[in-house]
Amino acid sequence: MSKGTVVLAYSGGLDTSCILVWLKEEGYDVITYLANIGQEEDFDAAKKKAESLGAKKVFIEDLRAEFVEEFIWPSVQANAVYEDRYLLGTSVARPCIARRQIQIARQEGAQYVSHGATGKGNDQIRFELTCYALYPEVKIIAPWRIPEFYNRFVGRKDLMEYAEKHGIPVPVTPKAPWSMDANLMHISYESGILENPKSHAPADLYLMTKSPEDAPNSPDVLEIEFKKGVPIKVTHVKEGKSKDTPLDIFSYLNEIGGRHGVGRIDIVENRFIGMKSRGIYETPGGTILYHAHLDIETFTMDREVRRIKQGLGVKFAEMLYNGFWYSPECEFVRHCIDKSQESVEGKVQLSVFKGQVYILGRESPKSLYNEELVSMDVQGDYDPCDASGFIKINAVRSVSLRSKLNCPKKFYFQEGFLSINHI
Amino acid sequence: MSKGTVVLAYSGGLDTSCILVWLKEEGYDVITYLANIGQEEDFDAAKKKAESLGAKKVFIEDLRAEFVEEFIWPSVQANAVYEDRYLLGTSVARPCIARRQIQIARQEGAQYVSHGATGKGNDQIRFELTCYALYPEVKIIAPWRIPEFYNRFVGRKDLMEYAEKHGIPVPVTPKAPWSMDANLMHISYESGILENPKSHAPADLYLMTKSPEDAPNSPDVLEIEFKKGVPIKVTHVKEGKSKDTPLDIFSYLNEIGGRHGVGRIDIVENRFIGMKSRGIYETPGGTILYHAHLDIETFTMDREVRRIKQGLGVKFAEMLYNGFWYSPECEFVRHCIDKSQESVEGKVQLSVFKGQVYILGRESPKSLYNEELVSMDVQGDYDPCDASGFIKINAVRSVSLRSKLNCPKKFYFQEGFLSINHI
Amino acid sequence: MSKGTVVLAYSGGLDTSCILVWLKEEGYDVITYLANIGQEEDFDAAKKKAESLGAKKVFIEDLRAEFVEEFIWPSVQANAVYEDRYLLGTSVARPCIARRQIQIARQEGAQYVSHGATGKGNDQIRFELTCYALYPEVKIIAPWRIPEFYNRFVGRKDLMEYAEKHGIPVPVTPKAPWSMDANLMHISYESGILENPKSHAPADLYLMTKSPEDAPNSPDVLEIEFKKGVPIKVTHVKEGKSKDTPLDIFSYLNEIGGRHGVGRIDIVENRFIGMKSRGIYETPGGTILYHAHLDIETFTMDREVRRIKQGLGVKFAEMLYNGFWYSPECEFVRHCIDKSQESVEGKVQLSVFKGQVYILGRESPKSLYNEELVSMDVQGDYDPCDASGFIKINAVRSVSLRSKLNCPKKFYFQEGFLSINHI
Amino acid sequence: MSKGTVVLAYSGGLDTSCILVWLKEEGYDVITYLANIGQEEDFDAAKKKAESLGAKKVFIEDLRAEFVEEFIWPSVQANAVYEDRYLLGTSVARPCIARRQIQIARQEGAQYVSHGATGKGNDQIRFELTCYALYPEVKIIAPWRIPEFYNRFVGRKDLMEYAEKHGIPVPVTPKAPWSMDANLMHISYESGILENPKSHAPADLYLMTKSPEDAPNSPDVLEIEFKKGVPIKVTHVKEGKSKDTPLDIFSYLNEIGGRHGVGRIDIVENRFIGMKSRGIYETPGGTILYHAHLDIETFTMDREVRRIKQGLGVKFAEMLYNGFWYSPECEFVRHCIDKSQESVEGKVQLSVFKGQVYILGRESPKSLYNEELVSMDVQGDYDPCDASGFIKINAVRSVSLRSKLNCPKKFYFQEGFLSINHI
Q1: Cα-atom radius of gyration of chain B, to the nearest Å?
Q2: Does residue A410 carry a pLDDT above 50?
Q3: DSSP state at residue C213
Q4: How far apart are CA D274 and CA C303, in angstroms?
């Protein structure tokens, strides 16, 4: 008798194929689910493979459009960056994938979900927090955290042997000496030979971007139009070509960014689980959008609103990285950020060249930029005398503090505000 | 009889030459002071010019070493960036320049200081807050905020006429249709034709960096060594060349960065005075250091310390931009940031190419990176089962919230944590 | 010929009466405006006085209801406290008063507004930032910042002489040796003999609250009901009496709080203008509400939402104190805080006694409190084993750091995480 | 053969006595350790009981002085408050207790430590994070998280039976229907009948403070002197009595606060583990110090330093609550806060009466309060005209925004800065 039904996030690869069979061995009915979020994949082959391995049902789901609109767009609005560098391409995909998995589990009456994420990584957390949030009673089977599983499959060799024994097709091409994760937003590379933080990444690692050295010798100039903080149109200025649906816009930016080698980073980051890890990422379209959005936002948003929103964006990035997309606080912050984007509207022109994005200019019907006010040549509605008062009042705190110190001349340049007895 | 002595921050240009003469006309004794903070300048010519215009005394001060060590280095430690983009090259020079001006004023018994900064900009504030902090009784003459002055000199033409009338040498080359400010850290360009935020910057604007399009077709690879968060050595990996004093290190990074077109940005920013302005900056060496420091810092600093320090860095950047270097709060924050850098030590290898800086690898005797702990191939001293408990406890808040909602199946993927009556 | 029309914020007192006459002398038509925001005042007498002094028109406006609903309620939602102690009773009244003043100015076609606030205080800023925000072209006449005025009226004696000369009724009772500001939310006392921060406030200073020593010897127990973070009903538990409109609720809380001496504080605070000042405040109803709201909020709001909201509340309090109620950032923050209050609903029981408010219990249909989950006697849907993993994963950062230190036994209790070379 | 040696945090009560015997049953050698951190306890009796139950060694450690100096004092400097209300009396004791436990474990060569904290609370985390930080290789036995233990001892009855069977003296007085935790800083009450958040706490619950209703009818006035942010002397103004060692000062403040019923709160708080719990606390001395320190700090600290320090204090309180005293980030924050306290020095006079603390006045040699500057009667070194410029520059952002809106008169009071198309 079956122990129940599991919806397994299935990639078609060796690991999750072994998990599929192992789950069956353990007495579960297995439904496989493979999300198309823009990765290169032979989805048909994966489907057939799953069926041949005994999956009760196979779901292949195209989530690309909702991935862009519901997950990438809010991240663009937030200028979400983790630890000042990482654009969160993996993190943002996880709640999107897990949400559909939960929908399938509920629809199919499955009490279990399962995934092949490791026990040391962030993804297990991102998947499972989403699952628990959307399906509180769900039971999660994470084989890489179950001793009977991980003690049996200590290395790749054990998986290969198991595969051969159970008729699981074994990959013929040797595995790259690192692991990768790909979706519409980025490809990440980690583990294996990359674990040594000192060693340089091999030149042939990157799949989504050309090497800047091999990139075209002349730039592509784009104009990106925003409304409410999200892109609504991208135009190639010279070619006149344009895109205007979310998925098309993002895919086109990937194409242009990829061609010019945009968005490669090599970082050490801090996992939620408490350890540092080294990751290499390429995020071509996301990097272009990051720069463009930052520009139009600063152009159209009040300084102090921006300051508060910047702090919320940092928090949002941490939540996203840690797997809390579906949490009260992340919903709250997304709401606030969305509110801040009401007037983030206009066009940014930028040049993409040899791994870099250069902002060239911007315009907006809602800009708060006041050319007359700022002009050096026109006085405008501004009285320079006001600045004197402004400065003097801003100096009140430190002037009265310094006077109090009654600092002797020979130490006039010495610091020491804090402990007024220094001097 | 003299109204007193003024120490004038003198650039040798048309504006401050007119101010010099005007101050004399107004009855002041004028001492000129010109700081060498790395800008291209004929200091001898400026000296002679000031003397010929009647300066009572002329100071030319080489502040380059202290500028790097006491001002740029703390900014590097802080990863100081204003509004996510601007590396603060102008802001960081101001307290350095004004500090020496105040030292001269005190030493020469001058009650007044003067400068040629405009009434709409940030620099007036940065200069004057420094002056008031270090010399609370000082009186500041800011001609561009004095109606008799600015109403008399409405345009450049008025200055030219005044110059001719008073024997002030008039520049023969036409002025660029924008204004610029240069120092060791960067050159900024603004005003004039750049005031239209939509128009692209002319290709020939940049003086410190080559155009990425004309930059060499092969990268330079550098190794930068840090100790306590500041660079102590830079080595050109191929050529074996190295530098190890602050000024030499920074100048060399400028040379390499400049050759590859690194550090150009075109932004709209928010001035302290409340208006938005457009600025174009090139910060070659500073940009390389920003990336390198960020990398070694994340490698050697605890995650949560880093998070707090990141917030302090954002505050530091705002203070620096707004002119509060010499303030109790900035001293406090510099102290805290400095404390955070105690273990920020090690070497970063990076490649500079076509406007971009690529981190290649890093090593450190104080790294918190634990290769065994993070390894996918080795279990290490880590029990994957712990992650299950970690995730489940992290889900307690949202699980109990969702359970409470008792959300009906058909809405299982609907959001609505905040207002639990939605569903 | 008239220089134009001024709307003067008129209190009926000596200062603004002199200002009224002085403005007429200066050639303005003067409209007086007196807001009833709950202060003790003979509004009829003030009206007659203004008319007799030559006011062209006299407005007496009852703003009490809108003051509570539109200004106090958002502050309650925010738990707004300045510098950890001050409940902002003066600050919150200023935008309310100035808004109506601007409405009158626009409606009456006046180009000017005027007020009697001093040049060293916060109120001038709060009034004027509101005026500029709502009527950008307005011109403001602040006599206490105009040399001809403040040099003429150096002390109270000068005002008295001027009053006598111009037929302004002179107060017969001697002025208290401090100044005060009263409204529905609080009375503030400052200046005069209170300027010495060491000297104790006189016992007879307080007008809104009884001395706790003279307060009743038994408590009053109230139940306050909240919806969306604002009180919708207050009930006296024993007497059964209840109030349910905003103004009635707040007035009743003032009555109860006042009777028991609730909400007295004596603080030194930091003005926006940069100086420290000493203020004494009594905020009876506001203090009760502060405690009650804090309680129901923590009961019904998710922990992490609360943490973010707490930070926004601190920012809101600073904006409010500094006069930025009508600013983009304050509008933004109010919106976010309002969003956070959607589920802040329920009843709080509290006891008011001898200057103190004691929370006794709370209940809510939207509480996130889960009695079973937290119970020591019932396991509930919680597996204690999960906590082990949670703790161990939370220890990963410091365990791996400490292991690295390889700290010798004799120093095992020594600190020194930050600089790992200490040990 | 012994499985090894365990150092058990032993309270002398039923639970830990059963744990002691159970550990022996399980094959461990047990060393008991009981910390005196100021709770009421018969330490001799506890010692004898442990010995009679078979403890291999018994440690009774008087930690009161170090508890005050090394743990409470930094919390006073930080103004540490969790969720705006809780003064962290339990949290701050945990690292102090666990540190000594670890010292004993290392000294006695024990590989294990054990405690009787429950699996749903915060204390398990605070104990264990300290243990792991100071003794990374330690193994922790937490019986209330071990199924064999907690399934065997489901209710108090099981413990009683076990006790009787194993010769463990059974308490004769019935247990209070709640649990409590006492130390020098506070007593906390929770669980049992208190788990219903609506029900009022029984009047006879409190042990450390008198009921305000029964408190003396006249206040005690104290003067507390601070240096570097910590109290160095407390004087009873009338009686002339004074105390000047940390432990004496704190004990005396407890005595005075206790007599007047100071520091009682009834709150619902958010545990680190994700659930809300109801706690009742009495913190007499800590509450007095909180108010006094806040006062002297604001009096002597620059406004902007204070603002940054306030944020650090909130973070410190969260770390402390969550158990991260011994963590890199908490060490860092303590260092920063300590730095901020350099000039926090002076005397505060306050009155303690009927549950409340009233600040009466303060003085300091390092005050930044400038009586002349703030005076309403003296101009001082302050030009009121400067305020005009200050205000106008502060209005630039919103004036230019509003002008842009070109808001029609009839909507002049309407809000809508953020979405400039509203109007």
Answers
A1: 26
A2: no
A3: G
A4: 8
Q: Residue D339: which of B273, B307, B335 has the nearest Cβ? A: B335
Average pLDDT, chain B: 93
Residues of D whose CB is below 8 A from C217: 213
Sheet holding A264-270, edge to edge: A179-182, A187-190, A276-282, A264-270
Report the SS3 class of residue B118: coil
Written as six digits, the tokens of C59 are 């407005």
A160 and chain B in contact, CB less than 8 A: no
Taking 70 as the threshold, does the pLDDT of residue B417 lie above it?
no
Q: Which two tokens stand for residue A412?
A: 């006039």
Cβ atoms within 10 Å of A147's Cβ, excluding its own: 10
Number of residues assigned to chain D: 423
* Residue B2: Cβ-neighbour burial (10 angstroms; 0-12, 13-18, 19+): exposed
DSSP per position, B384-396: HHHHHHHHHHHHH
Q: What is the pLDDT of residues D29-66, one digit of tens each?
A: 999 999 999 999 999 999 999 999 999 999 999 999 99
Handedness of CA D275, D278, D282, D286 (dihedral sign): positive
The Cα C53–Cα C29 span in angstroms is: 12
CA distance C159 to C138: 28
Evaluate if residue A35 carries a pLDDT over 60.
yes
When pLDDT is cut at 50, 70 and 90, the band that residue D251 belongs to is very high
CA D62 vs CA D41, D94, D183: distances in Å: 12, 14, 12
**Is the separation of the CB atoms in C333 and A357 below 8 Å?**
no
Chain D residue numbers touching A419 (CB-CB < 8 A): 342-343
Closest-CA residue in chain A for C312?
A: A308
Of the candidates C93, C97, C72, the residue with the CA atom closest to the CA atom of residue C286 = C72
A contact test, residue of C277, C333, C336, C382 with most A CBs within 10 A? C336
Q: Which residue has the tokens 């129940």?
A: A4
**Going by DSSP bridges, is the β-strand pair C139-141/C112-114 parallel, antiparallel, or unpaired?**
parallel
pLDDT category at C119 given cuts 50, 70, 90 is very high
Q: What is the rounded distance in angstroms from the CA atom of residue B209 to the CA atom of residue B288? A: 13
Q: How many CA atoms lie within 13 A of B343 on its CB side?
A: 26
Angstrom distance (rounded) from CA C97 to CA C245: 21
Q: Does D409 touch chain C (CB under 8 A)?
A: yes
What the block records as the tokens of D115 is 């405690």
Q: Can you tell me the distance from the alpha carbon of A363 to that of A140, in angstroms, rounded to the nearest whole number? A: 50
pLDDT greater at residue A278 or residue A374: A278
Please tell me what DSSP assigns to residue B207. Answer: S
Whether A418 and chain B come into contact, CB under 8 Å, resolves to yes
Each domain of chain B, given as residue ranges in start order, spans 5-63+84-175, 180-363
Torsion over CA: C405, C407, C412, C416 (sign): negative
What span, in angstroms and rounded, lies between the C-alpha atoms of B245 and A297?
40
User: Reduced to 3 states, what is the DSSP secondary structure of residue A358?
Assistant: strand
Query: Looking at CA atoms only, how far is residue D335 from chain B in angstroms?
Result: 8
D180-363: CATH superfamily: Argininosuccinate synthetase, chain A, domain 2 (3.90.1260.10)
**Is the model more confident about A413 or about D105?**
D105
CATH topology (fold) of D5-63+84-175: Rossmann fold (3.40.50)
Token pair listed for C99: 């808004």
Question: What does the CA dihedral C289, C232, C92, C61 come to, rounded to 10 degrees?
Answer: -130
DSSP bridge partners of D361: D349
- Tell me the residue type at C217: N
* A421 contacts A407 by C-beta, under 8 angstroms: no
Work out the average pLDDT over D110-126.
Answer: 97
